[in-house]
Amino acid sequence: MPSTTREPVRDPLIRACQEADSELALFEAVSHQLQKLVPFDGAAWFATDPATLLGTSAVRVENIDPGLCETYWERECLVPDALLFRDVARSAQGVASLYDATDNRPIRSARYREYLKPQGYGDELRAAFRSGETTWGVLDLYRERTRTPFTRRECEQVGQIAPVVAKALRAFATQERGRTAPDGPGTALFQGRGTLLGVDAQAERLFEEIAGPGWRSFSAALTPVHAVIARAHAVAQGLDTAPAITRLRAASGRWFVLNASDLRGPDGSPGPTAVTIQPARSEQIAPIIVRAYALTTREQQVTRAVAQGLSSQEIAARLFLSPHTVNDHLKAVFAKVGVASRGELVAKLFAEHYQEGLHEGAQYADW
After folding, report:
1. Which region holds residue 192: left if phi is over 0, alpha if psi is between -120 and 50, else beta?
2. Domains plus CATH for the chain?
3. pLDDT digits (tens, 9 = 90+) for 97-134
4. By CB distance 3.0 to 4.6 Å, which of 17, 149, 260, 298 could disulfide with 123?
5. Does residue 302 sit in helix, strand or coil?
6. What is residue 185's three-state secondary structure?
7. Residue 279 CA to chain centroid, in angstroms?
8. Mean pLDDT, range 188-204, rounded to an integer
């Protein structure tokens, strides 16, 4: 049973998750409440693409040197280390501390030696915001070296609120706002860790929509770009086989897709990294929307078949079910998505997520 000393803190934290109207507002409110439950000196909050675990456009950074943003995801993708986000997301608990993961010898961690220690930090707590098996965001908490490390009890407390945060992040994927038709892709070339070499007019416009007018200088706002570039480097070096792609939603509500690929010269020498950005097509974002509505595997199969225009009888034959069972699954899907017909279902999942607007970029906390 939860202790009485914890409830007065947990209740406002849960309310903060339920009342936030954006990912950044969610991170700000949860950070304020979590500080009372599990004190920390610095933090990084990221929404993630549930398919690739790469950071997207919702970023909150607290007491971290902005100049380290370029190397953050490069380190995550290229440097073998303890407590990488992909490992935390796959773990049973979904949360752990660096001291615990290294048997109280953090010096064994390259991230500690090269990132945490130079900033005066000691222990680190990482958590995945998971709903079921799907991760919608990740969290990094830091404590100064002069303070005691995070306890297992504190890890448990973060683990208890993580699903609540995940549920809120998941809900934002289904929010309906104004819509606009997709436009064409843009391309940018980057060198090394993210130095911009060149950008076409379309990419410039789309980067501004995602990260605001100051996107060139505000590095944290370009977290998705740093993330896909780092993944592209890892793929080119044979360290990863996962795609260098992330899907993200701007504050305007529009969905975008970022792809990155390391180029080579005619002689095989390393070249720049090409990043393409474009508004997402319906088939690219539908999987995220389906996950956001927490459909079961069978409900997802039925939904995909509906989107292909199959009848209940045809779906039943494909999935080796009875038409009655297919209709039961459809009723459950309609209830979860909030629609009353097949046409509304397809429109909801495939046609309501292209919007206009301007993103003001990542959020830095002013402590």
Report:
1. left
2. 7-172 (3.30.450.40), 186-281+357-363 (3.30.450), 284-350 (1.10.10.10)
3. 999 999 999 999 999 999 999 999 999 999 999 988 89
4. 149
5. helix
6. coil
7. 17
8. 90
